[in-house]
Automatic annotation (TrEMBL):
It comes from Halodesulfovibrio spirochaetisodalis. This is Carboxymuconolactone decarboxylase-like domain-containing protein. Gene3D superfamilies: AhpD-like. InterPro entries: AhpD-like.
Length: 175
């Protein structure tokens, strides 16, 4: 159980309220992580700005980014993130079988081949940084059409989720 106060739509004001307002016309509710971050309005606004950035990314689409979050969250048991991204992915047409493939980062996900490669890259970079990365791996992704910015952005996106998971766990009761 998370031990710090969580901000609700009803108690939000100023920058906190902006977070809830932004999700008003979206197909999902305000993510639990942002409700927790809202205790610190500047940090919450920073995360909302990240969401806005990724929501309008010119090459990384919503299904790919949701798949990256879902795969990482599944591997680190970040339940609230698993739930919200499962909802997003099911609304985009994925089945339970598709979700299993995404969670295990298998090659038979409903993503395009070049997206699957980027999914695997992001998950590996975030969950196994000790493995490093090779120039050949980068070249393979460049040949699929990805840019250095895309590689940086998906890795950063994954680390943002991982840090949220660890932050939540560190401020929750054990177990």
């Amino acid at each position: 159980m998370y031990l710090l106060k969580t901000i609700s739509k009803e108690t939000a004001h100023g920058d906190q309220k902006e977070i809830f307002d932004w999700f008003e016309d979206k197909p999902i509710n305000t993510p639990p992580s942002l409700q927790r971050y809202a205790i610190s309005p500047s940090i919450a606004k920073f995360h909302l700005d990240l969401i806005r950035y990724f929501s309008s990314h010119k090459t990384l689409n919503f299904a790919l980014l949701s798949s990256i979050r879902y795969a990482i969250a599944s591997k680190v048991c970040y339940d609230s993130c698993i739930a919200i991204n499962e909802t997003i992915l099911k609304r985009s047409g994925m089945t339970d079988e598709d979700l299993k493939a995404v969670a295990s980062t298998q090659q038979d996900t409903p993503l395009e081949e070049h997206e699957e490669a980027l999914l695997q890259f992001a998950v590996t970079r975030v969950l196994h940084p000790e493995q490093g990365c090779t120039q050949e791996q980068l070249q393979d992704l460049y040949q699929l059409g990805w840019t250095e910015q895309d590689l940086f952005d998906v890795t950063y996106h994954g680390y943002t989720l991982l840090s949220g998971s660890q932050l939540t766990a560190s401020l929750s009761t054990a177990g």
